[in-house]
Specification:
Among the domains are: 104 residues; 32 residues; 97 residues, no CATH class. Helices cover 62% and strands 11% of the residues. It contains eleven helices and eight strands.
C-alpha cells in the first residue's frame, strides 16, 4: 500500500511536469509565471503568417517567444509578439523586424533586431512601424505572376543553369561575394529613389495646391499680366531714357562707393563722439524734467513779452519823435553836462562835507515818529518783502535749483498778497500804511516799481 501511494505521487508529479513542459513548448502562459513582454510589429504584407500556428519569434536570432496574433489595421497587418519577460529592456526604440523562413520547408518566423542602446528601451506593447520592417516573398508568389509560357521558359532556364553550374559552385559563391558591394550600392540607390519618390509626391501635392490658388486668383493674375504688359510697353517706349540711365549708372555706383568709403571713415570719429555724448544723454532726462518745471515761468515771461510788445507798438511814434530830436537835444544839453561835470568836481573837492551831510540825513530819517518814517519812505527806497524774514518755511538742502525757484516764487506771491491786504486795511486809520502800500516794490498794483533784491 505505501508503495502504491509513492508510485501515484510520482505519476502525478511526472504528469504535472509533462503538462508544464508541453504548455511551455507551445508558449502557453501559466498562472505562476512572469508576465510576457509584448511587441507589436506593423507589416506591409503578412501572407503566410498566421497567429493560430504560433510562429516562432526571435530576438537577434535566438528564440524568445511566439507570434500569438495577426490582425489587419487599415491597409497593413499587425503581428503581436509575446516574448519572454527577461527580453524587456534589451529591445530599443529603433529596433527593426523581418519576416523570414526557417528550415528547408519554409516556416515563417519574425526576427527582431534590438537596435541601439542609446535610443532607450522600447516599452511593452509598443509598435515597430512598417518603415522599419520587411516581409518574406515566397517563390510561389513570384511565380504566380508569370503566365504559363514564361514559367516554361523559366523552367528551361533553371535546367540549363543546373547543367552550366555543375561542379562550379565555388565560382558562383565567389561571384555572389563580388556582387555583395554592388547590392549595398543598389540598396543606397533604391533608398535614394524612394526618397525621390516621396519628394515627387510632395512636389505634385504642392503644385496641385498652387494650381488651385491660381485658379481662384485668375482674375488678379490676369490683371497682373495686363499691368506687366503695359509696363513693358512703357519700358520699350522709353528705351533711349533707360539707355541713358544705364550709361550713367557706373558713375552713380562709383559715387555711391566713394560716399560709402567716406561714411566708413567717419564711423570711427562718430563712434568716439557718441561715446563722449553718452554722459550728456544720461543727464538729458533730468534736464528735460527741469525744463518742464520751468515751462510755466517761461510761459508767463512770454505773456509779459507779448504785453510789452503791444505796449511798445503804441509808444513807437513817441520813440521815433524822441530819436528825431535826440541829435539837437544832445547839442543843446552839452552846457548842462558841462555844468554837471563842474558839480561833480566840486563834490569831489568837498567830499568831507558831503559825508557830514550824509550822517546828518541819516540821523534825521532814523527817528521813530511819523516824520522819520515818511523821510525814510521818500529819501530811501523800500526794500521788497522777503519771505524768509517773515518765518516762511525753507526747503531742505537737497532740493534742486528749479524746486528752490518755484518754492521762493510761490512764498513771495503769498507774502505780497497778504501784506497788500494788511496795508490796505491799515490805510484807513494810518497814513504811514498808505505810504508803505504805495512805495513797497512787488505788491499788487506796484508792478511799476523795480525790485532790488532780497531785503526785509
Amino acid at each position: 500500500m505505501p508503495m502504491a501511494r509513492t508510485a501515484l505521487v510520482c505519476i502525478i508529479i511526472a504528469a504535472v511536469v509533462g503538462v508544464g513542459y508541453t504548455l511551455r513548448k507551445v508558449d502557453v502562459s501559466l498562472p505562476f509565471t512572469a508576465e510576457h513582454y509584448i511587441v507589436q510589429v506593423e507589416l506591409e504584407n503578412a501572407a503566410g503568417l498566421d497567429g493560430a500556428d504560433h510562429p516562432l519569434a526571435t530576438v537577434a536570432g535566438t528564440k524568445q517567444g511566439r507570434v500569438v496574433a495577426v490582425r489587419v489595421e487599415g491597409r497593413r497587418a499587425v503581428a503581436t509578439l509575446e516574448l519572454d519577460a527577461e527580453v524587456e529592456g534589451k529591445v530599443f526604440r529603433n529596433a527593426t523586424a523581418v519576416v523570414r523562413p526557417i528550415g528547408a520547408v519554409p516556416v515563417l518566423s519574425v526576427n527582431v533586431d534590438p537596435g541601439d542602446r542609446e535610443q532607450g528601451p522600447l516599452p511593452s506593447n509598443a509598435t515597430i512601424r512598417a518603415e522599419r520592417t520587411s516581409t518574406y516573398v515566397a517563390p510561389d508568389q513570384v511565380l504566380s505572376v508569370l503566365d504559363a509560357d514564361t514559367r516554361a521558359y523559366l523552367q528551361v532556364l533553371l535546367g540549363e543553369a543546373d547543367t552550366a553550374l555543375d561542379g562550379r559552385g565555388s565560382d558562383l559563391e565567389q561571384i555572389i561575394r563580388d556582387i555583395a558591394p554592388m547590392t549595398a550600392s543598389a540598396r543606397r540607390v533604391a533608398e535614394a529613389a524612394s526618397d525621390r519618390r516621396r519628394l515627387i509626391r510632395q512636389l505634385v501635392g504642392d503644385i496641385a495646391e498652387i494650381s488651385a490658388v491660381l485658379a481662384r486668383r485668375r482674375d488678379q493674375l490676369a490683371r497682373a499680366v495686363d499691368s506687366g504688359g503695359r509696363v513693358l510697353q512703357v519700358t520699350s517706349a522709353r528705351s533711349p531714357e533707360l539707355a541713358e540711365v544705364m550709361r550713367d549708372l557706373p558713375a552713380t555706383v562709383e559715387a555711391a562707393q566713394r560716399t560709402l568709403r567716406r561714411v566708413r571713415a567717419l564711423a570711427g570719429p562718430l563712434d568716439e563722439a557718441m561715446d563722449g555724448a553718452l554722459p550728456a544723454l544720461e543727464e538729458l532726462p533730468e534736464g528735460l524734467r527741469e525744463l518742464r518745471a520751468l515751462t510755466p515761468d517761461a510761459r508767463k515771461i512770454l505773456d509779459d513779452v507779448e504785453v510789452l510788445e503791444r505796449t511798445g507798438k503804441k509808444q513807437l511814434p513817441a520813440i521815433r519823435e524822441f530819436t528825431s530830436r535826440l541829435g539837437s537835444a544832445a547839442v543843446e544839453g552839452r552846457p548842462s553836462v558841462e555844468a554837471a561835470a563842474r558839480t561833480v568836481d566840486t563834490l569831489a573837492t568837498y567830499g568831507d562835507g558831503v559825508a557830514q551831510l550824509g550822517d546828518l540825513i541819516s540821523g534825521a530819517v532814523s527817528t521813530s515818529d511819523v516824520n522819520g518814517v515818511m523821510a525814510r519812505a521818500i529819501i530811501t527806497a523800500i526794500e521788497p518783502a522777503n519771505p524768509a524774514n517773515f518765518g516762511f518755511d525753507r526747503l531742505p538742502e537737497g532740493a534742486s535749483a528749479t524746486e528752490r525757484r518755484r518754492h521762493a516764487t510761490r512764498q513771495r506771491d503769498e507774502l505780497e498778497e497778504g501784506l497788500a491786504k494788511l496795508l490796505d486795511a491799515r490805510c484807513a486809520t494810518d497814513r504811514v500804511a498808505c505810504i508803505m502800500r504805495a512805495v513797497t516794490p512787488g505788491l499788487p498794483g506796484n508792478e511799476h516799481l523795480k525790485r532790488k533784491g532780497g531785503g526785509g
